[in-house]
Design goal:
Length: about 250
């Protein structure tokens, strides 16, 4: 566990997570996710952001007047959250152990990062069950999708020969040493069932955006606004979901 934590720390020390959502392709994810979050929030809600990264969602929601607790496992990210907003409540913890929080302490849980780094199904289920335990109403949970990763890295970036031993006969990624873990829709459905959670909605926070980052970043304002409009009107379409780079489940009891 500590070795994996060190690898995560090394990764986030090099990767500028704090700026990721400022770029055009990151704005698509942020604007889409915030649209859905706002649809389910109620006045006075207490929110827990599990795997808060550098606090973009936590701080935005806090500034909107919500009672927000940010939970983060990677220490460089915790430091960045505090630099971004010294007054926000931050707890250092893993998504699989939230024992410092009471049952039903929060109304809404946001999990936009933890499932990326939980390789075993047991750990993913433990994280979902912990979120369920401490949350009364709604859980948002995001996953990285298997097919996007294969299309993008193995084929688009022409790395197939280097990674083919990490793909099974169905092209499911099988790499226990990876920092990021990818799923398919049936895996998400299985987890929801095991956790006893009801799928309310499922959307693609970024849709095709990560396939076309350079194009998105080069768009003029009018074209980018039209792309956002297109994306928001199609991000729940079933024929597009599985090929998105990420999917987000909105879960209830």
């Amino acid at each position: 566990m500590e070795d994996f934590r060190k690898r995560l720390t090394d990764y986030y020390n090099k990767f500028n997570e704090n700026k990721r959502l400022d770029r055009r392709h990151g704005q698509v994810e942020f604007l889409t996710s915030m649209k859905y979050i706002h649809e389910y929030l109620k006045e006075g809600d207490r929110i827990i952001d599990i795997g808060a990264g550098t606090g973009r969602y936590s701080i935005t929601l806090k500034n909107e007047g919500y009672d927000v607790t940010a939970v983060e496992y990677v220490r460089p990210n915790i430091g960045q959250i505090k630099r971004n907003d010294p007054d926000i409540r931050v707890v250092e913890a893993s998504a699989t152990d939230l024992s410092m929080f009471e049952d039903g302490e929060f109304d809404v849980a946001i999990m936009f990062g933890p499932m990326y780094h939980l390789y075993s199904k047991d750990d993913r289920l433990k994280a979902l069950n912990e979120a369920k335990r401490i949350t009364r109403r709604i859980i948002f949970v995001t996953y990285i999708m298997n097919e996007y990763s294969v299309i993008e890295y193995a084929f688009k970036d022409n790395n197939y020969k280097d990674v083919r031993d990490k793909l099974d006969e169905t092209f499911r990624i099988d790499d226990p040493d990876a920092l990021f873990f990818q799923l398919r829709i049936e895996d998400m459905d299985e987890l929801n069932g095991l956790a006893g959670l009801k799928l309310l909605r499922r959307f693609a926070p970024d849709g095709p955006t990560d396939y076309m980052r350079k194009t998105i970043n080069a768009m003029d304002e009018e074209t980018f606004a039209a792309f956002i409009d297109f994306h928001l009107k199609t991000c729940e379409r079933k024929e597009l979901l599985g090929a998105s780079s990420h999917l987000t489940d909105i879960l209830g009891r």
